[in-house]
Amino acid sequence: MKLVVIEPLGVKQTSLDEIIESRFADKIETTFYNTKATSDEELIERGKDADIIIVANQPLNSNVINGFKKLKMLSIAFTGTDHVDLKTCQDNNVIVCNSAGYSTASVADLVFGLLICFYRNIISCNKFVREGKTKDGLVGFELEGKKFGIIGTGAIGLKVAQIAKAFDCEVYAYSRTKKDIAGITYTDLDTLLSTCDIISLHVPLTESTNNLINKDKLDLMKKEAVLINTARGPIVNSNDLSEALKNKKIRAALIDVFDKEPPLKVDNILLNTPNIIATPHIGFASKESLEKRAVIVFDNVKNWLEGKPQNLVK
């Protein structure tokens, strides 16, 4: 049985070796690639003999998956699976598992890191104090009492809600599945958008969520509203968001995800829009979360080999 880790996992090789030794001993042959592939052809060459492949966020399209002639199981080191052609996997009888749960804490941390950074003008404060200036013009806002809207109440959305409640925010939610949780008021999407001071996105990228936040939805938001996207870039229409910010329809956007994975071109519309704080898709990546992820992806393999697959993607 041959396993290929087709791109880096962001964890020390010694740690990966320990995980493999403790779970498989000499039962599988493992190959690691410590760089990202730069073409479909390179990906196919790396995985052409693999029975099992571990991938992070490297896109695997239909052409690539069809090139993995021996592939039986794909373990994705991510929660989202929109970068993998799942239909081709299904057509080829490839079992697919993801790594749900590994980044819950790290993404929630970033939501509030971005928000407090913006609300308290931390970037400008750092600049001003180094220039011998005072706090003049930098007085910000508190989280206490703000109406905090969460779109999508899976694990990450609920973690964000928990933290928002700790800051004494009023928490509202819109989600496909409503949950009976104290301190969270579920409502429809339009009501949430028109009611909340802060709106944080935590839905997967699907046909129904693509372009979910567009001009019509942005027009519903308060002028002082802040939009946070740590989910997937295409959930928000970038052109519409840029226009809303330029025309001061909303106060700010805090963004960790874009239509394409960083590095971004310098002329990217959102990087040239006022009142945006941007990070390069770092929400999922903390030292702790990457270690959790490594354990999960190899446990996915172990459980599949034992006939007890976990984290199945349907």
Question: How does this model look, in words?
Answer:
The chain contains 11 helices and 12 strands. The protein is an alpha/beta fold. α9 links the parallel β9 (198-201) and β10.
Detail the topology: elements first, then pairings:
Layout: E1 2-5, H1 13-24, E2 29-32, H2 40-47, E3 52-55, H3 62-67, E4 73-76, H4 86-91, E5 95-97, H5 104-119, H6 122-130, E6 147-151, H7 155-166, E7 170-174, E8 184-186, H8 189-195, E9 198-201, H9 215-220, E10 226-229, H10 238-246, E11 252-255, E12 276-278, H11 287-305
Parallel strand pairs: 1-2, 1-3, 3-4, 4-5, 6-7, 6-9, 7-8, 9-10, 10-11, 11-12
Question: Strand sequence of the main sheet, in spatial order?
Answer: 8-7-6-9-10-11-12
Q: Can you tell me the residue ranges where pLDDT is under 50 for at least 5 consecutive residues?
A: none
Q: Beta-sheet strand percentage?
A: 5-15%
Distance between the termini: 24 Å
Q: What summary fits the major beta sheet?
A: 7 strands, parallel
Number of helices: 11
Helicity range: 25-40%
Overall geometric form: elongated
